[in-house]
Amino acid sequence: MQYTNPVIPGFHPDPSICRAGDDYYLVTSTFEYYPGVPVFHSKDLVHWRQIGHCLTTAGQLPLENSWSSGGIFAPTIRYHNGWFYMVTTNVSGMGNFFVKTQNPEGPWSQPYPVVQDGIDPSLLFDDDGRVYFQSAREGDQGNGIYQCEIDIETGDMLTGSRLIWTGTGGAHPEAPHIYRINGWYYLMIAEGGTEYGHMETIARSSQPYGPYEACPHNPILSNRSMKSSIHATGHADLIEAQDGSWWAVCLGIRPVSYPMGHHLGRETFLAPVTWTSEGWPVIGNGGHVEPVMDSPELPEVRWPEKPVRDNFDEPRLGPDWTFLRNPLEGSWSLQERQGVLVLHGHQATLNETAAPAFVGRRLSHFTARIAAELDYEPQHEGEEAGLTVYKNEKHHYDLAIGLKAGRRIVIFRRTVGSLRVEHVEECPAGPLELRIHAYPGKIVASVQTGESGVIEMGWGETHHLSTEITGGFTGVFIAMYATSETGQSAPAMFQWFDYEPLE
Ligand code: 6LW
After folding, report:
1. Atom 6, ligand 1: which residue's CA is nearest?
2. In this predicted model, what pLDDT tens digit does every residue of 439-484 receive, in sequence order?
3. Does the fold of domain 309-501 match that of domain 2-294?
4. Half-sphere exposure of residue 44, counting CA atoms within 13 Å on the CB side?
5. What is the pTM of this model?
6. Does the structural domain 2-294 have CATH classification 2.115.10.20?
7. Could you tell me which of 347, 403, 340 has the C-alpha nearest to residue 373?
8. Each residue of 113-148: pLDDT tens digit?
9. CATH of domain 309-501
10. Which of 44, 174, 290, 375 is catalytic?
């Protein structure tokens, strides 16, 4: 049997994995999005379904100061003695901290801060009961991986921080994980930066603080300089399956077009791991991750397909739905009207690092049909509501209903850096179906009015929403949103939302 990469498509970077018996759990980073750090569950390493989030309260995840691609950087998940631990960094908030739970669906505990700074924290639960904390920092001993011992009950540092490895010379030694395997401490890290030079390297020692001896065939994973649909592989985590086979999850990107651009974000890939006779790992096919690879020999467990339509009939939003920063109280509701998602626009807009009324999900496929029925009668110029194809405050395409000279209008607006282009059409009365069709290279917008009428609103390149253009660490979201220059706005009533992958 074979499987297809990525195993978790769309913006799901910096994966970390743990196993509890025959169950696998995986977390990814979320930056300025809320709730933070989705938790995925799998029985076979290939099929994943989201079961919740680690960070579901503003106390765990304050994002009011988060710039785009600030907030939550790479997490690590570990399972030890019946407890799950997730450790990460809020780079625009509390720095390094962990949360814990006995039920990975949540809720997770309050945050336990750890004073050692840096990014990409990880935990090693050693056989003697000690717990070591690693992070990547530019410290007084140099640039690389630092370690201290912590009290896992409190997060308190029990020792000072020591530099334990600087890597093999690539830029940005980061994403450390230490594993105890056959008496060795293996320290695996990412180097080269998270772009096209990304790679994974490893070293080992008989002692937790080293000296660490580098693997003679580093990097053990990289797709750099390859003719492949997959690039930037790295930031990996290893797992031993219950059958003794070894696997790695890592991030990678799938650029489209020339020049290369990836707009779906960094995604989660799976690759087999083999060991040399000298006890060094090789990830994937000679260090490469491929679109199709041989499956683990674990009993396959698939999850039900996600329904295309969300009718907003449940009392709570499903785990796909995401806010931009901590949502303002009262800016969204499922309770106000039965079976309707109501947004109340306020002064925060999509063009600043703020928290406008915004409920979105990741664009996780190159080709997809997205539609929403919106019932909205704007009362003032300067208020609008609709759908946005959103990368960050400087790069987004919006399909919205607004008001101009007393008339209701439909707007398709493309914001690309300092450039802004608007196409406006007059809009018939009544609820409208807003439609976005995503293709690998373009985003096409239209509006369905009544039974038959379709207004073509235009299209924009996915390239302008790609990370190669926008910078940052995230991927494209499709969101329902509402804003209002005056702060006053009519309720934007979304009756349903469709997301249909077409690949
Ligand atoms: C992640 C770090 C990185 O924490 O990007 O470029 C950060 N390197 O490993 C965000 O994904």
Report:
1. 194
2. 999 999 999 987 779 999 999 999 999 999 999 999 999 999 999 9
3. no
4. 16
5. 0.97
6. yes
7. 340
8. 999 999 999 999 999 999 999 999 999 999 999 999
9. 2.60.120.200
10. 174
